[in-house]
């Protein structure tokens, strides 16, 4: 958030700054700033002089609210309603959604990054867990119903569906996943600048003066990071204030690329699953590869394009994280971008004079850290370590990969219906265990391997066609790795089949892949930070 900005942000001008709150006789007792104090400090004539900036910085650095009701929060689902309308600049009276709060999560973000990437990332962070759990549970229930039900009126229909590999569970689970992903009502209390700071001039000014108190009241901070974040002065201030006001700060940092990347991966996996249904259907009909090969080629081409885009964006992200290290190692407070300075401290819309963000933030930082040099040292060491450790592993985590790939399980659930229904329970359980093995083991191993390779191959190549070739080789590496795992599974199955039932072989494969995934993901942070 910025004090000012060409996107939405509160602007403090002469008129708004000169309007104080009503007198509050209990302010001193409750630890808030008294209105009388505020009224005198925000005198209109003082606004044009350095005294006003001094007083404003003093108010912010004390981290006290002008009144208890000014510290507010909204629920996550309210902040994300209408596909993140508040972030997309849609005009509405958002302030009425907020309520006074004592504890909440502070959402820190730059208004100069991609809005849609930010919104999709928020959906994945807050709704993907519920969507994956609900869809997997419902798909399992549908599988059990189709496998064991003997309703006479449905007997013929269910038998036909199970024999022809029709994606019943897949369709039901996909619809459930989409609905839960969009409409899940997460109740967590959060502070979002546009929703929790009023548009009225008086309350807007009070909200800004109480920003220190709001940050102090926040028990955690969610940073939606993009490459513009560390360049914005007010973003730097928010992180500095949060680190200063919390002995053990709970910082949660996600890149805004997370949402688009997970969405693209989900689409590519769904296309691959579609290919599995097509080949299974033609095989059950007794048709050879010549019949389903064209469908496979079309789906594989589309999926390959999606995975190629993912490889490109992942390599670019790894470069941005590397550049972040160089930027913060050379961080200077005076280099941070402040919109008010770029317009000469005059509101281009109204012509009113604007407070200098840089002067206010500088005085706050001097109050908290002793001097600007000490703050810059903190950014170059502590903040850099926090950002680098979070961002190196935030794009691909085991939890996020599992949330983005439940469609793998849905396919195997559909394929298990036929064998179980016709009495071959052993094969049905084997297919179920394979579904869990690929969902919770193989796919996370693939994603981690590909991300590690993207990290190692992050350097941009010249000419551009060579750089594209590197991304293409990354996709080919993923395909080869998948083929190797599938071949290993087939070899294991054929070797153990003479001694063990199908279900036992499935259990061995499932436990082996999940164990390997757990081992690799536990070593992920060390591997990436070392490189």
TrEMBL record:
Keywords: Membrane, Transmembrane, Transmembrane helix. Residues 1-35 are annotated as: Disordered. The keyword Transmembrane helix applies. The chain crosses the membrane at residues 128-149, 161-184, 251-279, 291-311, 407-424, 436-457, 469-488, 503-521. This is UGT80B1 protein. It comes from Symbiodinium natans. The lineage of its organism: Eukaryota, Sar, Alveolata, Dinophyceae, Suessiales.
């Amino acid at each position: 958030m910025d004090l000012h900005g060409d996107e939405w942000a509160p602007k403090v001008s002469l008129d708004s700054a000169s309007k104080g709150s009503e007198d509050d006789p209990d302010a001193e007792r409750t630890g808030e700033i008294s209105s009388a104090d505020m009224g005198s400090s925000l005198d209109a004539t003082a606004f044009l002089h350095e005294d006003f900036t001094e007083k404003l910085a003093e108010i912010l650095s004390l981290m006290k609210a002008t009144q208890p009701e000014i510290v507010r929060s909204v629920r996550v689902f309210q902040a994300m309603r209408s596909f993140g309308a508040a972030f997309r600049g849609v005009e509405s009276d958002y302030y009425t959604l907020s309520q006074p709060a004592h504890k909440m999560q502070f959402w820190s973000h730059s208004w100069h990054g991609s809005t849609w990437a930010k919104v999709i990332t928020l959906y994945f962070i807050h709704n993907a867990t519920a969507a994956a759990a609900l869809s997997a549970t419902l798909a399992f229930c549908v599988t059990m119903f189709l496998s064991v039900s003997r309703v006479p009126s449905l007997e013929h229909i269910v038998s036909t569906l199970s024999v022809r590999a029709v994606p019943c569970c897949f369709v039901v689970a996909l619809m459930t996943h989409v609905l839960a992903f969009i409409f899940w009502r997460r109740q967590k209390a959060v502070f979002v600048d546009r929703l929790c700071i009023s548009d009225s001039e008086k309350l807007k000014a009070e909200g800004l003066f109480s920003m220190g108190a709001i940050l102090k009241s926040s028990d955690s901070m969610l940073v939606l990071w993009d490459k513009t974040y560390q360049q914005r002065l007010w973003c730097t201030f928010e992180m500095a204030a949060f680190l200063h006001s919390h002995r053990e700060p709970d910082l949660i940092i996600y890149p805004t690329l997370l949402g688009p990347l997970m969405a693209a991966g989900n689409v590519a996996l769904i296309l691959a699953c579609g290919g599995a249904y097509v080949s299974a259907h033609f095989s059950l009909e007794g048709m050879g590869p010549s019949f389903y090969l064209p469908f496979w080629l079309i789906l594989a081409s589309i999926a390959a394009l999606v995975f190629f885009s993912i490889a490109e964006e992942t390599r670019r992200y790894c470069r941005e994280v590397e550049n972040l290290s160089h930027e913060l190692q050379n961080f200077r407070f005076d280099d941070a971008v402040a919109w008010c300075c770029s317009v000469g401290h005059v509101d281009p819309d109204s012509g009113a004079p604007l407070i200098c963000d840089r002067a206010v933030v500088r005085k706050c930082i001097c109050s908290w850290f002793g001097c600007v040099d000490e703050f810059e040292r903190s950014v170059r060491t502590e903040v850099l370590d926090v950002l680098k450790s979070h961002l190196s592993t935030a794009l691909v985590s085991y939890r996020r990969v599992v949330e983005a790939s439940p469609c793998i399980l849905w396919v195997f659930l559909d394929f298990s219906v036929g064998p179980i229904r016709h009495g071959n329970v052993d094969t049905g359980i084997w297919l179920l265990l394979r579904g869990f093995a690929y969902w919770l083991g193989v796919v996370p191993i693939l994603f981690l391997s590909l991300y590690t390779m993207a990290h190692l191959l992050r350097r941009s190549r010249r000419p551009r066609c060579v750089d594209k070739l590197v991304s293409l080789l990354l996709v080919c590496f993923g395909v080869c790795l998948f083929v190797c795992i599938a071949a290993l599974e087939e070899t294991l199955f054929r070797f153990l089949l003479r001694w063990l039932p199908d279900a036992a072989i499935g259990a061995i494969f499932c436990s082996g892949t999940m164990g390997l995934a757990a081992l690799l993901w536990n070593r992920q942070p060390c591997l990436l930070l070392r490189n």
